């Protein structure tokens, strides 16, 4: 028996994970000593920890603010890392986590709705609402991705769809409750600031329950790691076990987010790092994840506290973890082939949801008819109103035309941009927002506006285009090792988007009175557009579309692959850069006019492809018609759905896009 115990102990102390955990533990102890040092010098170390002097402000501040924050950082990091390790093990997916599978977004959406709309009498049910939101989101992701040929990729893709849909819903509620905007925004970004021990007392017992259950189920977890068939043959009740473990993982996540907001990437990066370091057994992975996650978030939060300084600026801890954790995911993708290779082009035959010619006719008629309806028909919540004349007829038509044409032009520009990125990258899942182009463009513009005071549209367009181009070049370099395979391009793009999104959140916390306007712009709104700006972007889009159509034959060759294109005489590297440059300029132009939009650049080329637009020229024109129609409909709905209140057009477009991909995913089951 002693020999078995000795072997178990030797297996538990893996060299790599032990060194990582010990290093973080030493840093955490050093942080605690650093915070305590002024009191230790005065001989008041024990007093400030347990019985602070109520007449000493520094002791009160440390005991009721700094110390609870340190404790909460460890508890939240430990809980999220444990939840991530359990989810990764159950789903046998090294990229699964509460962040990537929509759990965090589901909890955030449920809590946002609950906090803004629920009466005070329902306050005790806040945690139940959070748990329900996380479970529903995870269930939707699992249903979409189950029984797929490449479940690993589909889990991440389904998580992205659910994340975007729920984040759009959260933004809608925030924009309609502007009085709570700043506080809810900071909470959603992950804020560990404390003013007492209430949050610690709320999270700690729930974490202990979750830890106890997950550790008790660690041995059955090892069976699940062998596969469902093997686990079933060994007597495990796979479905019940999976639901039980996932349920407690979501319970831990919901508890943490309820108290501290959305803190991403701890649940993904920590277990993945420990697996790379050599951990294989589930029990050891859970324990090491618990400790390493707690120490890691404590160290990250210490860095955040130093960045905040004394000037009152706040850097959200959740944004900082994404900024640190997302590059680690890129490192994982470069170090290990975690998914089997696939062909990078979609070679499935046309699905013919509707014929190409009929679709073209319907889209043209829809665009013309929709334009007339958008300009002259509105909805007041009860009846349709027709604009026929009057003193303000000219002004109303001008205002509607500015917004309608802005939406149409942006839809066309993003459709062309997405088509170019998909064809040159030979990746049907690529688009300006998924590859980070839209996020980089928005970030560059926000930094130029907030930190450097750029106000001219021409300056912002130039800066935004430069940001988009740099983002594309970085992504292509990251994926060059894997010949731009779809899943690596997608996952690296999502990680890059997370990094850029974290920086955007940090920049927004420093934007002061501009926060509300910038969040509205980030949601994609036509409200601030002017006709002269619309005409400029329309001219840029038309000119670049003509250029792209003129090079449609080389574009067709580029979609065959690098080797074949080179053998046919095409200088593929230079041509790829040229096309990506055009795609970035188009995305930057649309982003400047309306703001970053989700799913239009992905949905329009995708729908055009499956409708039969295969050749480059037809693919471009089909995508333009689809993108213009989608954005025109989204703009009318945004203007009239909740009249007199108006929704951001980008959020409606995102909801249309997610609904389409959910339908497509279910249809392909």
TrEMBL record:
<keyword id="KW-0812">Transmembrane</keyword>
<dbReference type="InterPro" id="IPR037294">
    <property type="entry name" value="ABC_BtuC-like"/>
</dbReference>
<feature type="transmembrane region" description="Helical">
    <location>
        <begin position="534"/>
        <end position="555"/>
    </location>
</feature>
<dbReference type="GO" id="GO:0033214">
    <property type="term" value="P:siderophore-iron import into cell"/>
</dbReference>
<keyword id="KW-1003">Cell membrane</keyword>
<keyword id="KW-0813">Transport</keyword>
<feature type="transmembrane region" description="Helical">
    <location>
        <begin position="70"/>
        <end position="91"/>
    </location>
</feature>
<feature type="transmembrane region" description="Helical">
    <location>
        <begin position="103"/>
        <end position="122"/>
    </location>
</feature>
<keyword id="KW-0472">Membrane</keyword>
<feature type="transmembrane region" description="Helical">
    <location>
        <begin position="434"/>
        <end position="454"/>
    </location>
</feature>
<dbReference type="GO" id="GO:0005886">
    <property type="term" value="C:plasma membrane"/>
</dbReference>
<feature type="transmembrane region" description="Helical">
    <location>
        <begin position="240"/>
        <end position="273"/>
    </location>
</feature>
<feature type="transmembrane region" description="Helical">
    <location>
        <begin position="285"/>
        <end position="303"/>
    </location>
</feature>
<feature type="transmembrane region" description="Helical">
    <location>
        <begin position="128"/>
        <end position="145"/>
    </location>
</feature>
<comment type="similarity">
    <text>Belongs to the binding-protein-dependent transport system permease family. FecCD subfamily.</text>
</comment>
<feature type="transmembrane region" description="Helical">
    <location>
        <begin position="615"/>
        <end position="634"/>
    </location>
</feature>
<feature type="transmembrane region" description="Helical">
    <location>
        <begin position="315"/>
        <end position="333"/>
    </location>
</feature>
<dbReference type="GO" id="GO:0022857">
    <property type="term" value="F:transmembrane transporter activity"/>
</dbReference>
<dbReference type="InterPro" id="IPR000522">
    <property type="entry name" value="ABC_transptr_permease_BtuC"/>
</dbReference>
<feature type="transmembrane region" description="Helical">
    <location>
        <begin position="12"/>
        <end position="33"/>
    </location>
</feature>
<protein>
    <submittedName>
        <fullName>Iron-hydroxamate transporter permease subunit</fullName>
    </submittedName>
</protein>
<feature type="transmembrane region" description="Helical">
    <location>
        <begin position="358"/>
        <end position="379"/>
    </location>
</feature>
<keyword id="KW-1133">Transmembrane helix</keyword>
<dbReference type="Pfam" id="PF01032">
    <property type="entry name" value="FecCD"/>
</dbReference>
<feature type="transmembrane region" description="Helical">
    <location>
        <begin position="460"/>
        <end position="479"/>
    </location>
</feature>
<feature type="transmembrane region" description="Helical">
    <location>
        <begin position="646"/>
        <end position="666"/>
    </location>
</feature>
<feature type="transmembrane region" description="Helical">
    <location>
        <begin position="152"/>
        <end position="176"/>
    </location>
</feature>
<feature type="transmembrane region" description="Helical">
    <location>
        <begin position="488"/>
        <end position="507"/>
    </location>
</feature>
<feature type="transmembrane region" description="Helical">
    <location>
        <begin position="575"/>
        <end position="603"/>
    </location>
</feature>
């Amino acid at each position: 028996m002693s020999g078995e115990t000795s072997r178990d102990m030797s297996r538990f102390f893996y060299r790599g994970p032990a060194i990582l955990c010990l290093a973080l533990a030493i840093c955490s102890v050093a942080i605690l000593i650093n915070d305590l040092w002024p009191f230790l010098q005065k001989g008041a170390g024990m007093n400030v920890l347990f019985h602070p002097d109520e007449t000493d402000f520094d002791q009160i501040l440390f005991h009721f603010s700094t110390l609870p924050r340190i404790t909460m950082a460890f508890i939240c990091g430990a809980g999220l890392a444990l939840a991530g390790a359990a989810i990764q093990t159950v789903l046998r997916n090294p990229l699964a986590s509460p962040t990537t599978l929509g759990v965090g977004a589901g909890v955030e959406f449920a809590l946002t709705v609950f906090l803004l709309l629920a009466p005070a009498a329902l306050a005790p049910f806040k945690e139940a609402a959070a748990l329900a939101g996380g479970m529903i989101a995870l269930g939707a992701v699992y249903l979409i991705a189950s029984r797929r040929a490449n479940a690993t990729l589909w889990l991440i893709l389904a998580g992205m769809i659910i994340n975007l849909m729920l984040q759009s819903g959260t933004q809608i509620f925030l924009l309609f409750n502007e009085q709570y905007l700043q506080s809810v925004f900071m909470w959603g970004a992950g804020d560990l600031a404390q003013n007492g021990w209430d949050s610690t007392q709320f999270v700690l017992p729930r974490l202990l329950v979750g830890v106890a259950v997950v550790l008790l189920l660690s041995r059955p977890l090892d069976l699940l790691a062998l596969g469902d068939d093997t686990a079933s043959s060994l007597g495990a009740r796979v479905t019940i076990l999976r639901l039980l473990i996932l349920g407690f993982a979501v319970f831990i996540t919901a508890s943490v987010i309820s108290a501290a907001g959305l803190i991403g990437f701890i649940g993904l990066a920590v277990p993945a790092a420990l697996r790379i370091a050599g951990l294989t057994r589930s029990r050891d992975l859970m324990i090491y994840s618990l400790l390493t996650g707690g120490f890691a978030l404590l160290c990250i939060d210490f860095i955040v506290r130093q960045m905040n300084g004394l000037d009152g600026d706040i850097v959200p801890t959740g944004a900082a973890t994404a900024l640190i954790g997302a590059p680690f995911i890129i490192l994982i993708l470069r170090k290990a082939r975690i998914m089997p290779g696939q062909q990078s082009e979609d070679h499935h035959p046309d699905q013919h949801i509707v014929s190409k010619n009929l679709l073209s006719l319907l889209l043209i008629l829809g665009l013309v008819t929709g334009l007339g309806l958008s300009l002259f028909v509105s909805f007041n919540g009860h009846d349709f109103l027709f604009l026929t004349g009057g003193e303000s007829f000219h002004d109303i038509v001008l205002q509607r035309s500015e917004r309608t044409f802005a939406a149409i032009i942006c839809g066309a520009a993003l459709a062309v941009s997405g088509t170019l990125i998909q064809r040159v990258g030979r990746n049907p899942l690529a688009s300006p927002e998924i590859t980070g182009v839209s996020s980089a463009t928005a970030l560059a513009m926000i930094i130029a506006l907030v930190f450097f005071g750029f106000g001219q549209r021409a300056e912002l367009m130039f800066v935004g285009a430069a940001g988009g181009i740099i983002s594309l070049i970085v992504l292509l370099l990251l994926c060059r090792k894997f010949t731009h395979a779809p899943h690596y391009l997608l996952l690296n793009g999502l990680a890059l988007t997370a990094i850029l999104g974290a920086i955007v959140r940090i920049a927004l916390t420093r934007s002061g009175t501009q926060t509300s306007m910038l969040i509205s712009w980030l949601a994609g709104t036509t409200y601030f557009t002017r006709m002269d700006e619309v005409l400029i972007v329309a001219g840029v889009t038309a000119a670049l579309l003509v250029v792209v159509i003129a090079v449609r034959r080389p574009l067709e060759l580029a979609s065959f692959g690098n080797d074949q294109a080179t053998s046919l005489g095409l200088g593929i590297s230079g041509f790829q850069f040229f096309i990506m440059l055009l795609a970035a300029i188009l995305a930057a132009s649309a982003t400047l006019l309306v703001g970053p939009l989700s799913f239009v650049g992905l949905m329009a080329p995708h729908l055009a492809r499956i409708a039969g637009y295969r050749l480059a020229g037809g693919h471009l024109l089909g995508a333009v018609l689809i993108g213009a129609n989608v954005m025109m409909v989204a703009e009318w709905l945004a203007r009239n759905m909740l009249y007199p209140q108006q929704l951001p057009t980008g959020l409606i477009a995102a909801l249309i896009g997610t609904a389409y991909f959910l339908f497509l995913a279910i249809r392909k089951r």
